[in-house]
Specification:
By secondary structure, the chain is of the alpha+beta class. The protein has ten helices and 15 strands. The protein has two domains: about 160 residues, Trna Endonuclease, Chain: A, domain 1 (3-Layer(aba) Sandwich), CATH 3.40.1350; about 190 residues, no CATH class. The longest helix has 17 residues.
């Protein structure tokens, strides 16, 4: 028998077993990506897929790609009893690797196989780092210069399950190498101040505006009868909503009407419209299928009701570019103590294009009346 050749030891066998087990758990959820050479300190990537229908065996490749660093703990090191009675498991890692994973533009998870329990603990490196060090993690003062490793803790509640795999689809990577808007990468090239939407399908429009308000933390929302400002029977509850709520986040937009497009022969300076803000108690109208303007008398009664409730901002979103619709609310509220600068399709583009998360969710159902692009 020859004594020449590399030896495959118990640790190699263990690593091979849990790697194949991990691949088996994610095989139906994505396509595997792997580096040709192990130089990036990441074991395996998964380009996630989604089922086309609830009963279909076909899958569609998503825009989400995530990466995993795999590690394992033998049962001799961590017994079943010790694991059951612990809240977390300590994992030593190289500090330079952890910093590399944390700074990655795509999500990286640490997956730890617990042999005694035959399960994986899987946590997003961002969550692990923020839980212990916060934003100071990359600060030069956080670790001594000579320190080469740290011990991180993976929660016992982070067991890899089908539900946890499904939740990984929330991750999105964003291009930030294009032109920027006020120093902010938007993930697209559209100029938020100088684009205008075409009229959208009423259901798409109401869903889009509702989502914008949601990410600006609209809370305590309470629906009100549409008859408070419209004649009875002139609106459908399906596409129109009147509500009273509180915006915990500041909602900002710039009226399209007051923004300059062209430049003078002597200067390339262009004026921007004055920003409008809504924050705190608001009344909100989302009109996905505008047909008639508000009833003047009902609107005046509604304004007085707002003032008695100490609400002084009426947010109006309308799926139209009709200036008459704008004027009915703007003129009806002027001088009453209630501020109202209605947002038509032209105005909504600013809020949408500066809220990248929502834009990416809806970009495939949007149609643009005209577009202008940011310049590098």
């Amino acid at each position: 028998m020859s004594n020449v050749g590399p030896i495959i030891g118990a640790e190699d066998e263990f690593e091979g077993r849990y790697t194949e087990k991990f691949r088996g758990l994610l095989r139906d959820s994505g396509e595997f990506v792997q580096y040709e050479r192990d130089r990036a300190s990441i074991d395996i990537g998964v380009h996630l897929t989604t089922s086309m229908t609830a009963t279909s065996t076909h899958r569609r490749v998503s825009h989400t790609r995530i990466w995993f660093q795999l590690k394992g703990v033998r049962h001799q090191t961590l017994s079943s009893d010790e694991y059951t009675h612990s809240d977390s498991v300590d994992v030593p890692v190289r500090l330079d690797h952890l910093k590399f994973w944390f700074a990655s533009p795509e999500p990286i998870y640490l997956a730890l196989y617990i042999e005694s329990a035959d399960e994986f603990l899987v946590e997003d490196i961002h969550e692990v780092v923020y839980r212990r060090w916060g934003e100071d993690f990359l600060s030069p003062e956080t670790f001594p210069r000579e320190q080469q490793s740290v011990t991180i803790k993976l929660s016992r509640n982070s067991v890899l399950t089908p539900g946890r795999i499904a939740a990984m689809r929330r991750h999105q990577s964003m291009r930030i190498d294009g032109p920027y808007f006020r120093g902010r990468p938007l993930g697209h090239r559209l100029d938020p101040l100088r684009c205008a939407l075409n009229r959208l399908d009423p259901s798409v429009y109401t869903s889009l505006v509702t989502r914008l308000l949601e990410v600006h933390q609209l809370r305590n929302s309470m629906k009100l009868p549409l008859t408070e400002i419209f004649e009875s029977g002139s609106r459908s509850d399906e596409y129109t909503m009147l509500a009273h709520g509180v915006l915990y986040g500041t909602f900002e937009w710039v009226p399209y009407l007051f923004t300059e497009f062209g430049c003078s022969p002597n200067s390339d300076f262009r004026r921007e419209g004055e920003p409008q803000f809504a924050h705190g108690p608001v009344m909100i109208l989302i009109d996905g299928n505008p047909q008639t303007p508000p009833d003047d008398e009902r609107l005046q009664v509604f304004i007085r009701t707002m003032l008695t409730r100490n609400v002084r901002r009426l947010l109006v979103f309308a799926n139209t570019d009709d200036p008459g619709y704008f004027g009915s609310f703007f003129g009806g509220c002027r001088g009453t103590g209630v501020e109202c600068m209605p947002q038509l399709l032209e105005d909504l583009a600013y809020s949408l294009l500066t809220t990248t998360l929502v834009y990416l969710e809806f970009r495939d159902v949007l149609s643009w009346k005209w577009t202008n692009y940011l310049i590098d």
